[in-house]
């Protein structure tokens, strides 16, 4: 009987221990799960679980004031840094716009300088051509008409017309008289009035008639 009672007591003791273990497990596991959820939520919210736990404890509340103040100071400093960066970006944009304006002005000045250079080159070419034509006209004018006519006979019709139109009408007539009939006939439709030569000829003839 003693052995049976001892076994019964041992079984009863084990049963009580098992029930207590089940109760502890039933309470501890949900509590642990709840704490894990709280820690995860605090981390997602950007909070430090340790600091939050310290703030809950009365003796640690004074220590939590400093981190909060430090965080506000960091935010203020960050805002100031952002403001400074915005001002720097605006200044850089303003400098870039000024440089673009200066570049546009330089390009405009370069374009004007190129146009002036082209105009000067064109004017020089025209002056050189006029001077060359004057030399040709003066040369053929001073040449014997028969020799000039022999030269014009050998030139192409268009080229001969260009040279003979540089001369005054009197010189033209003298050269045409000494040219072959065929070449003179080809040149006749291409003859043009030379106003400058005619004016100089009329002025020279007027001055000659005024002489005694």
Automatic annotation (TrEMBL):
Give the start-end ranges of region Disordered. Answer: 193-212
Residues folding into a coiled coil are 75-123
InterPro entries reported in the protein's UniProt record: Mg_transptr_MgtE_intracell_dom, MgtE_N_sf
Transmembrane regions: 20-42
Per UniProt, which keywords does this protein have? Cell projection, Cilium, Coiled coil, Flagellum, Membrane, Transmembrane, Transmembrane helix
Query: Residue limits of the Magnesium transporter MgtE intracellular domain?
Result: 118-192
Q: Which domain of life is it from?
A: Bacteria
Q: What is this protein called?
A: Flagellar motility protein MotE (MotC chaperone)
What is the source species? Sporolactobacillus spathodeae
